[in-house]
Amino acid sequence: MTSAMLSTSLRLCKHISPSRHLHKSVAMASKVLTMETLNPHVKTMEYAVRGPIVARAGAIEKELKEGAKKPFDKVIRANIGDCHACGQPPITFLRQVVALCTYPPLLESSDFPADAKDRAERILAGCKGRSIGSYSDSAGVEVIRRDIASYIEKRDGGVKCDFNNVFMSTGASDGIKAILNLMISHSPATPTGVMIPIPQYPLYTATASEYGLHPVPYYLNESNKWGLDISELQRAIDAQRAHCTPRALVVINPGNPTGQVLSRENIEGVIKFAKKEKLFILADEVYQHNVYASGSSFFSFKKVLSELGPDYADLELASFMSTSKGYMGECGYRGGYCEVINMDPEVRGQMLKSLSAKLCPSVSGQAAMEVVVNPPRPDEPSYESFVKERDQVLGDLKLKGRLTTETLNSMEGMSCNEVMGAMYAFPQIHMPQKAIDEAKAKGTKPDTMYCFQLLEETGICVVSGSGFGQREGTYHFRMTILPTVDDLKSLLAKLKAFHVGFMARYK
Amino acid sequence: MTSAMLSTSLRLCKHISPSRHLHKSVAMASKVLTMETLNPHVKTMEYAVRGPIVARAGAIEKELKEGAKKPFDKVIRANIGDCHACGQPPITFLRQVVALCTYPPLLESSDFPADAKDRAERILAGCKGRSIGSYSDSAGVEVIRRDIASYIEKRDGGVKCDFNNVFMSTGASDGIKAILNLMISHSPATPTGVMIPIPQYPLYTATASEYGLHPVPYYLNESNKWGLDISELQRAIDAQRAHCTPRALVVINPGNPTGQVLSRENIEGVIKFAKKEKLFILADEVYQHNVYASGSSFFSFKKVLSELGPDYADLELASFMSTSKGYMGECGYRGGYCEVINMDPEVRGQMLKSLSAKLCPSVSGQAAMEVVVNPPRPDEPSYESFVKERDQVLGDLKLKGRLTTETLNSMEGMSCNEVMGAMYAFPQIHMPQKAIDEAKAKGTKPDTMYCFQLLEETGICVVSGSGFGQREGTYHFRMTILPTVDDLKSLLAKLKAFHVGFMARYK
To answer: Could you say which residues form the signal peptide (chains A, B) (predicted)?
Structure first.
């Protein structure tokens, strides 16, 4: 954390509790839990997607409410993949099913279609006492796990999926943390190394900090559509081997924050590398429904693995999925699952035991996941309206991705790869030296300075590239493509005007 | 874990994946994640409430489904406080509110009462994009946190509660873990000591194992209604001081698994002890609505603390609450909150940062929590039916608690304290020496042997005392009082017959 970030964060604390802060010097003496006794891993942990820039955005919203005058009327949050917050409407069928599970007297209502009632009955029959208010098995409701397994088989063209390998989680994050938790070594001399892409979704470095794992950063290739170079994987692991025992390789596909979609060939190369280096692959595939680039398709790591022949048949892999992304965008439900492949059965037993202490993931989130993997079929009454809603969301995202990259690339001193998938653009700012010098003088990072200025001048909230990681001497930010088409056009126009001014200011 | 437990657990793994297990010897050689490389804290962690006895209960259910002949028709799960699973119906108002939030077109329906619509509108107005599918702030939806603060103020007779001190969580468990996570020391020479009651809810020892915290066990006094003796707290901390830095004291009130309700005087003594020893109090108060004993009332640690005068005004305290217990019993929603008092503001900022990497707790769970803290008021249309439903549940629980202890105490070789609160009985089995010897010969614990025999002979699933902790040489089990009155009567009759047989067999 830079000192500028820290001071922002402290300002926030003061803002939250001014009265207590006044007494700090008196009270501190007798506190049990202080910055000195606090878990050091918590202190070092950073999570930019909800970091100081976002905290400042919240503070500005409060200032606006209290009547402060700003050069804008509202904060536009393009910092986080929060679809409904940006005005994307829920998929009707999903909400109907969850509402029926929530309040079963609605099963008698003629306002709900038969297929939604079928799904709800299916879920309720799998819940103890026919209530989503009872705990499920720690791995999730069995019938939902079975439907997830069917979905995976269909997605992968028939590659078998055993529902016993599917564990539901509180969002994908919780599943990712559950797998990484198994890998902690607790031996400071030989920490477990985890290969993490740079740029990355900051959950990975945050979890590495929290768990005392050793990050092994590898760079994605910005000059080749943010592709994944096997030679770079090799360089990265060789560079860190002396400092850790590398055991895991994280791949995010489609990419966050980069929006790339890996080719089948690229995935094959990654799998061969993991085999050679004895690495457990964590495939973050939460954007598997979000592919827009023509000629691109989503290939799951599992499918590619299964087609590489018997030499690869025992490679350990965990794949993660979520209700939060795709075209459903149900972030608030915190639904997710993890499929583990080739995990040692005793280890799997231990993982199940460790999950059991959390009791179970939210059952309403599990119900939402049921609809993600088992949406209306062509012979069902809701199919037509479902397809219309789905295609509207995905069509808009494709359009918005193109609009975003075109506009960004039209700006002098800015370049951006195509948004092939996911829901983010990660443009590079070709930062003027004068801006770099000013940031250095202020003790902040140039891209962070850019983002704070953008926020203060336009109300647009994006996250600086340093929160995700980037090559030394390059500067980026991540913005979502989620605002409605009209809002996005207005956002991009404001961004362009700001950027022109920024470049002129530091010329 | 005893070897018997382990072998049961391994049987379960085999059962889950026979085909993979066959290839184990071949595959093991090349695995990354094995029992040797697995996080050792995961290995040592135990969680009895969902442990081997419960796994066996699940296996028996499958055997019954497949036509196996048993001396019973179905498994009766009295192992976990899972209200709806035992047939307790949901509170209508809660489900109406959550259904309205889930599917807002229902706000137009005349089938839903105005007060339920008001609550739903209140929640939706607090959600970004008016959708429970958007992420909330990491600490929870602000309006719900404000309503929680009002609830706490009212509960405590006006003691002030700042909503900024309220953090919502995924069930109470997640909040408890978030606080304990802050206390990890990572310095093997001086681990943080956490005082844990024995018997305890096993989340605490499981989390201590997972986080490398040093448990400082203190015994509750079975001969005094499972009360909390201050002299025992002193003995316990003195005994462990050389092995750790004691920083936290866990109190569960009303008690789980013990069902005691602490007197106000007893709580005062605990607070004075915590002050003297510089301990952060974790008050697990999830059963605050479940008090049945005449003359007993729930006193929150916060209220008692606030009335002890200025010497105690800065004592650090975290109190936990849940949607899962009380009369709502909505376990599946995984709703919960934590109120922190007197936490160092910088530490609180760090906690907020660490919560932010989880994004947010399930928003539908937060909506359920809104109803827990803000149920229908006397002037509202749903009040009468709500009160009827609430009183039915609490009245039944009181009756079932009495029925359970009376029956248990009527058995020779069994004794049980009154179920003053919560939803469990924790009887002592006065174990015959012959049974103790047999268990020893079989490498299992006598109470575990008792519970396995009970399960195999009657289908009743309870958890042995060793899963919660108990004084050396005493043997208990925990059973819930949740089955319907008729089911509970039948359960108790079967249990009595089994117990008589068991005592005769080992006389």
So the answer is: none
Nearest residue to B198 via CA among B178, B228, B224, B176: B228
* A135 min Cα distance to partner chain B (Å): 5
Which residues in chain A are contacts of B164 at CB distance < 8 A? 16-17
CATH 3.40.190.80 fits A3-87+390-505, yes or no: no
Residue A308 burial (10 A CB sphere; 0-12, 13-18, 19+): middle
Q: Where do the domains of chain A lie?
A: 3-87+390-505, 148-360
Strands A214-219 and A192-198: parallel
CB contact A169 to B (< 8 Å): no
DSSP A111: T
Angle made by CA atoms A38, A39, A40, in degrees to the nearest 5: 100
On whether the CB atoms of residues B246 and B191 are closer than 8 A, the answer is no
Coil, helix or strand at residue B24: helix
Of the options 3.30.40.10, 3.40.50.10330, 3.40.640.10, 2.40.50.100, the CATH number for the domain spanning A148-360: 3.40.640.10
pLDDT, tens only, B460-486 = 999 999 989 999 999 999 999 999 999
Helix, strand, or coil (residue A313): coil
Task: Give this complex's ipTM.
Answer: 0.91
pLDDT along chain A (507 residues), means of 10: 36 37 45 88 76 88 92 91 93 98 97 97 96 95 98 96 96 94 88 95 90 95 94 97 95 95 95 96 97 93 94 94 96 97 92 88 98 97 97 95 96 94 96 95 94 96 92 95 93 96 94
Is residue B233 less than 8 Å (CB to CB) from chain A? Answer: no
Question: Which chain A residues contact residue B14 at CB under 8 A?
Answer: 345
Nearest by CB: B21 against A248, A345, A354: A345
Query: SS3 of B319, please?
Result: strand
By C-alpha distance, the chain A residue nearest B276 is: A30
Q: Decide if B135 touches A, using CB distance below 8 A.
A: yes
Nearest to B53 by CA among B468, B452, B447, B450: B452
Smallest CA–CA separation between B417 and chain A, in Å? 27
Distance CA A487, CA A400 (A): 10
